[in-house]
Amino acid sequence: MRALLLLLLSVCLLSCGADNNVNAPAEPPLQTGAEQLSQYLPMLAGKRVGVLVNQTSMLGQQHLVDVLLAQQINIVSIFAPEHGFRGDHDAGATVKSGVDSKTGLPLLSLYGANKKPSAEQMQKLDVVIFDIQDVGVRYYTYISSMHYMMQAAAEHGVSMLVLDRPNPNGAYVDGPVLDLQFQSFVGMHPIPLLHGMTVGELAQMIKGEGWIPQADKLQLNVVPLSGYQRNLPYSLPVKPSPNLPNDQAIALYPSLGFFEATPLSVGRGTAFPFQVIGYDKFSTGNFQFMPVSTPGAALSPPLMDKVLLGEDLRQVKAQGLNLEYLLRWHALFKAQDEVFFNSAGFMDKLAGTDQLRLQIEQGLTESEIRAGWQEALQHFRLQRKPYLLYP
């Protein structure tokens, strides 16, 4: 009898455990700030609204602009960053102002000669929305456009609403912290190359640290992500720019972006940009490819129409910042008595300092270079802590 009771008790415990597992609440699905309409539509009612958006500003299959217009929100103007409102402009190509063909709304460029909205443009607005997918790398210019919009909003008494989106490189804080002597449109803030923050968190830090004039006057609202953790992998549903077409390119971008200051190709003008490295005269590998003029790389990609040899990185496990590629190719160029950093000034802007280039040229190892970053990185981690919104 006792054995039977023990058996029944065991069965009960197992079934209870099974029921508990079945009924356990599922992890909440990730929602972007834009998808949480109830959180911000009341802020827009009766207001004159500007939007700084591009092709990534999607709620499922609908663009934010279309959703807001359907909700009778008064959108006055659309501001476009690098690559344009539809995301079809080449890197560095001038984005022209005009009229959006679908909505008939004024389309105002913030890339080219005019990177900051004018007083006339801002005076027509009560609130401006920033909703653009970033990739978490300091030299990716969408956060620079956000900076200038925040500055204009502060100067003209316009409130700023940031609809947050995940950082696909959010697990990493790495690289040199920008020295303000090297501030440029590819590096506006004293943050590491990989800062590990979302655009919403970074906007709060820009305001809180006074990195824009009259920061205290800016009325900033952030609609946070729901169900987000920065260490979880996130695959972007829309490519953020023509030459970052997939997760692998986005993961390699922190490491390969520096090659834009060298004579080498990183695959612009191929089907796999930022996933290969190659050169026409000598190489560290035997992978063969040829850049050609293509949509997104029509502005004469480096070494166009030449057969290149190099490295195929499409299957490597890319994580954070890897200096190995730079060091290996620099050593090869040095052995051939060729100039590697043929655009030294641009390299220093990308790095946010001249120290990385000088250390590579001096022959320092990766571990020696990284050692020089650690104190500044630790300071940054403490500095950013009050502005973090997610675990």
How would you explain this protein's 3D organization?
The chain has 391 residues and is α/β, with parallel strands linked by helices. It has 2 domains: 187 residues, Uncharacterised protein PF07075, DUF1343 (Rossmann fold, 3-Layer(aba) Sandwich), CATH 3.40.50; 126 residues, Aspartate Aminotransferase, domain 1 (Alpha-Beta Complex). The chain has 12 helices and 14 strands. Strands 5-6-4-1-7-8-11 form a 7-stranded mixed β-sheet, with helices on both faces. A hairpin with a 6-residue loop joins strand 5 and strand 6. The N terminus is likely disordered.
What is the total domain count?
Answer: 2
Mean pLDDT across the residues is 90
Share in helix: 25-40%
Oligomer type: single chain
What is the end-to-end distance? 52 Å
Number of helices: 12
Q: H/E series, N to C?
A: HHEEEHEEEHEHEEEHEHEEEHHHHH
CATH classification, class level of the largest domain: Alpha Beta
CATH architecture call of the largest domain: 3-Layer(aba) Sandwich
Portion in strands = 5-15%
Low-confidence stretches: 1-22
Overall body shape? globular
Largest beta sheet: strand ordering: 5-6-4-1-7-8-11
Query: How many strands appear in the DSSP assignment?
Result: 14
Going by CATH, what is the homologous superfamily of the largest domain?
Uncharacterised protein PF07075, DUF1343
- Helix/strand structural class: alpha/beta
Q: Within the CATH hierarchy, at the fold level, what is the topology of the largest domain?
A: Rossmann fold
Radius of gyration: 24 Å
What's the main sheet like? 7 strands, mixed
Domain Peptidoglycan beta-N-acetylmuramidase NamZ C-terminal: 252-390
Keywords: Signal
Signal peptide: 1-18
Pfam families: NamZ_C, NamZ_N
